[in-house]
Write a structure and sequence with these properties.
The chain is of the alpha/beta class and 198 residues long. It has six helices and seven strands. This is Acyl-phosphate glycerol 3-phosphate acyltransferase.
């Protein structure tokens, strides 16, 4: 209740407008893009709290040290051990099979400069878990944000990415110079089952 009230206060006084499709009714991978600023995290929380979505997001273990740990976990954070990333996928599968409805937030383009492609982890997780992908967005040109369509990943990587690119084609990140076109390094699909594609 308090989270929804906080979200509604944000939408009322912020220059941002929530324009969204309804929240998914099944476990989903929630893409956050274009992800060009740490302010996107605030927008993501306010979208989730307004729509009543139980969000989870993955972050490196160092983010959960000392005083930050309780806050990160309270907002849905899952610490990732880079030496054993498969554990996170196993936890997601277990939660989905237990009937939990949640959005696993992934930002495949990242915020650091120098990236030229999206990371393919979201696609691999979608295929391994059977979870669909919901396209969350930020558009600084119109100051709108929210959720777009929910898509099944078919295994035809190029075709799936074409649908994703079409949705984000007219969306502009808060810091446009950091924006990355939704494109995987290899869209043939041949390497997506391994860990070599970033």
């Amino acid at each position: 209740m308090l989270r929804r009230l906080a979200a509604r206060a944000f939408w009322r006084f912020s220059r941002w407008t929530l324009r969204t499709q309804p929240a998914p009714t099944q476990p989903t991978i929630l893409i956050g893009a274009p992800h060009t600023s740490n302010w996107d995290f605030i927008l993501m929380l306010c979208i989730a709290w307004e729509l009543g979505i139980d969000v989870r997001w993955m972050g490196k273990k160092s983010l959960f040290r000392s005083w930050r740990g309780p806050f990160m976990r309270a907002t849905g954070g899952i610490p990732v051990d880079r030496d054993n990333p498969s554990r996170v996928v196993a936890e997601v599968v277990e939660a989905a099979r237990a009937g939990e409805i949640f959005g696993l937030v992934i930002t495949p383009d990242g915020t650091r400069s120098g990236h030229t492609h999206w990371k393919s982890g979201f696609y691999r997780i979608a295929r391994e878990t059977g979870m669909p992908v919901t396209l969350g967005y930020v558009d600084s040109a119109t100051h709108t944000t929210g959720l777009g369509p929910t898509l099944e990943m078919t295994g035809d990587v190029a075709a799936d990415m074409d649908r994703i690119r079409a949705f984000y084609a007219d969306k502009t990140g808060i810091r446009p110079h950091r924006q990355v076109t939704p494109r995987l390094r290899d869209e043939s699909g041949g390497q997506l089952d391994g860990r070599t594609v970033a």
